Amino acid sequence: NVGRMVAGLDSFIACTPLGVMHMFKAYGIDLQGKDVCVVGASNIVGKPMANLLINANATVTTTHIYTKDLRSHTAKADIVIVGAGVPNLIREDMVKDGAIVIDIGINRLENGNIVGDVAFNEVAPKCSYITPVPGGVGPMTIAMLMQNTLKSAKQRNAI
Hints:
The protein contains six helices and seven strands. With about 160 residues, it is of the alpha/beta class. It has a single domain, classed as NAD(P)-binding Rossmann-like Domain (Rossmann fold, 3-Layer(aba) Sandwich), CATH 3.40.50.720. It is globular.
């Protein structure tokens, strides 16, 4: 499936990146030529996300928590997609005005609160679009799981 996805062929795609791509489509966001910074390079989110964006003709920079001067990459991006597993990693000074910010992170703080990888209240005023945590990308992940399940059943039963 990874090879087929990288080649842009029909395949089963990880649910979270697929959900993000559906969000872009639903909001009419054209990715062609956009500078996109993906923060997080996991096999289940970051890497597939980067490949899907490349297939959509975006210019992609993949970073992670060990990237030197992370801000220099995120601050110039039209779209920042974050799935690093670090609460409030992305702050207001790390995002340019009008950016689209997709927060895939989900973290439980010591006080029990659930937050994303983006400091939402700081960053939101600068954004043209931003996803909240919880309630942003998570429901899309579940919807794409259902889509992949249906697709698998159809293939298995030759429907």
